[in-house]
Write a structure and sequence with these properties.
Blueprint lengths: L1 E3 L11 E3 L7 E6 L7 E7 L1 E5 L7 E2 L9 E8 L7 E6 L2 E5 L7 E2 L17 E4 L7 E11 L7 E7 L1 E4 L7 E5 L2 E5 L7 E2 L10 E6 L7 E5 L2 E5 L7 E2 L8 E4 L7 E4 L3 E4 L7 E2 L10 E6 L7 E5 L3 E5 L7 E2 L10 E7 L2 E9 L2 E5 L5 E4 L13 E2 L7 E5 L3 E5 L7 E2 L9 E6 L7 E5 L1 E5 L7 E4 L3 E7 L7 E6 L9 E5 L7 E2 L10 E6 L7 E5 L4 E5 L7 E2 L10 E6 L7 E5 L3 E5 L7 E2 L9 E6 L5 E5 L2 E5 L12 E2 L5 H5 L21
Antiparallel strand pairs: 1-33, 2-56, 3-4, 4-5, 4-7, 5-6, 7-8, 8-9, 9-10, 11-12, 12-13, 14-15, 15-16, 16-17, 18-19, 19-20, 20-21, 22-23, 23-24, 24-25, 26-27, 27-28, 28-29, 30-31, 31-32, 32-33, 34-35, 35-36, 36-37, 38-39, 39-40, 40-41, 42-43, 43-44, 44-45, 46-47, 46-57, 47-48, 48-49, 50-51, ...
Amino acid sequence: MLIMSSFAPATAAGQWVDKGPETEFIRAIAIDPLHPLVVYAASDGSGIFKSVDGGGHWSSINTGLKGESHFIRSLAIDPVNPSIVYAGSFPYGVYKSIDGGGHWSTINEGLTIDVEDLYYTVTALAIDPSNPSVIFAAARYLHKSTDGGGHWTALNVNATVVEIDPHNTAIIYVGTDDGLYKSIDDGSNWTAINAGLPLSTAVRTLAIDPVNTNVLYAGCGDDLYKSADGGANWAPLNTGFTAMTIVINPSHPSVIYAGGIDVFKSTDAGAHWTKLNTAIAKNDSVSVLAVDPIHVSIVYAGLLRGGVFRSATAGDQWQLSNTGFKMRPEVFSIAFDPDNSLIIYVATDEGLYKSLDGGGHWDAINRGLVGIAFAPIVIDQFNHTVIYTATDLPCLYKSVDGGLNWTALNPPPGTASAGAVAVDPSNSSTLYAYGSGVFKSTDGGDHWATLNNELRVRLLVIDPSDSSILYAAAVDPLVQDYFGKVYKSTDGGVTWQLVLTGLHKLSTVVAIVLDPTDSSTVYAAIYLGGGVFKSTDGGNGWTAINSGISGYDSVSALAIDPTHPSIIYAGINSAGVYRSADGGASWQAMNDGLLSYSINDLAVAPNGTVYAGTFVGLYAAAAAPQAAVAVPTMTEWGLGFFALFAGLLSLHHINRKKTYFIRSAK
């Protein structure tokens, strides 16, 4: 799937411009049953969008939504008065609009809050077609309102999916993480209906035949299942695909659409299936499908990363329908082709993306990956089509075709928690994996040896002039603190020594960069107090260099210019980007045009352009043309790496716990 973005290049050095990638994680689509040109789409991060021309153009309708980012998981439209719209969200519960999405208000009285995390998550909504004041909301437990959401009552059943029988609305079905349940008395009592289904399987999607409501379809496990007797018995349709969403043509119920990795269509009630145009789901997944209730040849597909596609030919052809959407994923790490500054890779909270034109256009490159790639993207300096990364499971991955396909590497012996890779700049067959220890491979990742299983390493950098010298930001679990120190090895990672002289005592090192012309000059960034430090003797002694930096106690990223190493960039979590032109002696802010001041990563391209990975996408600031010199730089990739491998912090990476500072767009 191609992610489009059209941005003008920076007009002056130091001026930041938005480089995308544009991506819309669509959770729900709802079509006005009386005026089907009116369509609503719910996104995970950018809230709710509305189209009044059948998906031709979209407008953001977030007035009244709470928080900085708006995670909407479900939508429902009143079938009698379609100006009334409901939205289920994380973490703010249920919203209601009485003016077609013009304004929203929370309606959470009686809604059960998650007792562990103290938030609401509403994954599904259903309105009684015979009495629209009756609404069901799946918010861990199924909840029912009889007054249009004025008050909710928790019912005695868990729920992630909910559907109401349109012919007999006393019959309700719910899907849960361990099967299906049915009520025949408006939700008062529930019976498990799992005969023929996989044991304790999570139900992803559920659909009821609108003509013969005894016919049900459920997506669960690795197959699609069908019942012809109201859920009493189920049989697999042996489709060969996993369905994340099912929708039935309301006029011709033998026509069914299912979405997952691709879109599939059946014209014989599920007996046979045909894969439709897979171009809409290239390296992506279809999360939701919707059929126009009046013009049933019109079908909408919402994608996990690619926004909305529309078909006017019952799925035979699809067109991108994203005009008006503008959503940016959080960018955790950045990498460039060493010989071509226009080829850029970014790891985001919605997957990996690649651009061949400096960020003008992006392709999702996630085929074969499982999980989200928070780790650095590392490119083989000798063969630029070979790339490494890791996901949050954790698992190491390798691509030999420039990211088009990924293969999991054999895990290092005795551990499954190595979560990042460093490549020897002098011999790309030599790799280091790090996380709960340091591991080494001399055959490109096929086999591994343990070098150290004591350190918990969040960051590892190899000296480009002497690959036996390694620097690591790490925790020794035998030391009674939670802070990452700087360690150094001079024998290829076999032994390690603390190099702390002059560093802040309670240091959490999140970035280490080496001067490409003199690797004895090393810079380190400390997130929890201390700021930027410099060593001119290979890490033996350190000096703070923070003159001019505001809020330097929250440094989150560092990068050095490859051809002018006296030029250094620092990302400050609450204050944006700072630049030093004198080796860190003094710093100046450079935030003109930067929307987000939360910086996850910085990188300088071979042509001198500096890029910033932020909470709301990738930004670039132009510099004078420079020769292409390959320099390995590495910055901290999420500030939660310890969480994954040392068990020292929450299982969620710390970026989700930060306070984000977002500027208003001018």
